[in-house]
Backbone:
């Protein structure tokens, strides 16, 4: 169960009769720590998880964090768990204004109505001020990045219109994606193949195991990740980052347990796929106009970041990167690729040579990567032992659910 399901069950959004069933009171307020804004019982709940191994701890971490989202929902924060004012969560303004409104509805006193309007006005001003500060900081931090600045101003001045409703279902998307990949694989099978060797040379260095990560490094990675939230997360990612220092011992155990054992927890290998219309002007009833976006749990992305850093360092230190590679490489991008090609074209022209440029656009490139070929390539690069087993575990047993309207489908295997 994700945090969104928990919030719905808690009554923070709406009950069965369409109205909020919970009335904020002293009981829900007492469960919040005034300094942190989170339940006082959180450390005690998490301590139960520490008695298990990495896989079991990860399974228990979600239920241990559910009370955090539940308390925020009961406290009146039904909008994805919490608001931030001065980088500290607060629930006071909406709770107080709600009480004043109920008091005025009951007694019809002018003083209560004035108090309600005053609190509501103050809360509105606080929200406006928070938005202003948020975008001001966002613009200042993106001052050196024209693309980010353009995206910020474009989203503010020309917000995209919501897409037209579509009758497509989760089954339709799941069938379309599966059949599309199968058709591409069939074309691969019809092509002639040449035997290739991925045998490891004696001079190739080796990486037999992944190194455990220090808590300080893990904290830095956790707080630097983009806090995108997936329905699989027990609480919103931004909230997890806020209390990451309290969760650090447990997150470290889960991450290091996976690195040392060469095993990726099963819950980390689940994804939610949301189809997004490629362009708003396209026909929403045409299923080919959608591109799938895969959502992964926040903790799984932290684990991936740790392994990616270690693999990149290994390839860089041993000069195993392709010299012409620009994608997925530090300090490289499409700009460096274009500059390299342009330089070679200029050099060929100066030498009075002819140049032929062949460009390939691969359909569903990531979805059609052969796992056996990938693992064989990793082995040829010196990845062996527990490190190789980790990548094999990462690729094995993955599954996804298609959520066009946030209605989950059965888990489908991802081969």
Residues:
């Amino acid at each position: 169960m994700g945090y969104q399901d928990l919030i719905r069950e808690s009554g923070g959004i709406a009950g069965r009769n369409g109205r909020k069933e919970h009335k904020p009171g002293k009981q829900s307020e007492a469960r919040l720590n005034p300094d942190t804004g989170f339940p006082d019982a959180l450390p005690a709940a998490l301590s139960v998880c520490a008695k298990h191994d990495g896989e079991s701890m990860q399974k228990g971490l979600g239920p241990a964090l559910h009370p955090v989202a539940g308390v925020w929902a009961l406290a009146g924060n039904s909008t994805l768990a919490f608001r931030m004012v001065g980088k500290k969560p607060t629930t006071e303004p909406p709770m107080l204004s709600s009480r004043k409104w109920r008091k005025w509805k009951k007694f019809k006193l002018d003083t209560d109505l004035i108090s309600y309007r005053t609190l509501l006005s103050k809360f509105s001003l606080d929200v406006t001020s928070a938005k202003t500060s948020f975008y001001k900081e966002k613009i200042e931090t993106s001052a050196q990045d024209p693309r980010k600045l353009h995206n910020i101003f474009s989203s503010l001045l020309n917000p995209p219109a919501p897409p037209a409703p579509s009758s497509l279902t989760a089954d339709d998307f799941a069938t379309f994606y599966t059949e599309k990949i199968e058709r591409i694989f069939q074309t691969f099978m019809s092509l002639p193949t040449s035997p290739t060797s991925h045998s490891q040379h004696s001079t190739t260095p080796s990486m037999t195991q992944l190194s455990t990560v220090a808590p300080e490094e893990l904290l830095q990675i956790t707080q630097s990740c983009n806090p995108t939230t997936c329905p699989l997360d027990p609480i919103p990612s931004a909230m997890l980052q806020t209390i990451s220092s309290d969760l650090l011992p447990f997150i470290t155990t889960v991450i290091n347990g996976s690195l040392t054992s060469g095993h990726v927890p099963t819950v980390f290998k689940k994804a939610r796929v949301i189809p997004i219309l490629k362009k708003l002007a396209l026909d929403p009833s045409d299923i080919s106009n959608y591109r799938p976006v895969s959502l992964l749990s926040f903790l799984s992305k932290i684990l991936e970041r740790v392994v990616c850093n270690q693999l990149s360092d290994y390839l860089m230190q041993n000069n195993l990167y392709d010299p012409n590679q620009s994608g997925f490489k530090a300090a490289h991008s499409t700009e460096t690729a274009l500059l390299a090609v342009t330089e070679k074209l200029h050099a060929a022209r100066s030498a009075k040579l002819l140049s032929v440029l062949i460009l390939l656009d691969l359909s569903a490139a990531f979805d059609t990567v052969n796992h056996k070929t990938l693992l064989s390539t990793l082995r040829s690069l010196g990845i062996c032992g527990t490190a190789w087993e980790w990548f094999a575990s990462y690729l094995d047993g993955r599954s996804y659910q298609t959520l066009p309207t946030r209605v989950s489908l059965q888990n489908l295997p991802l081969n």
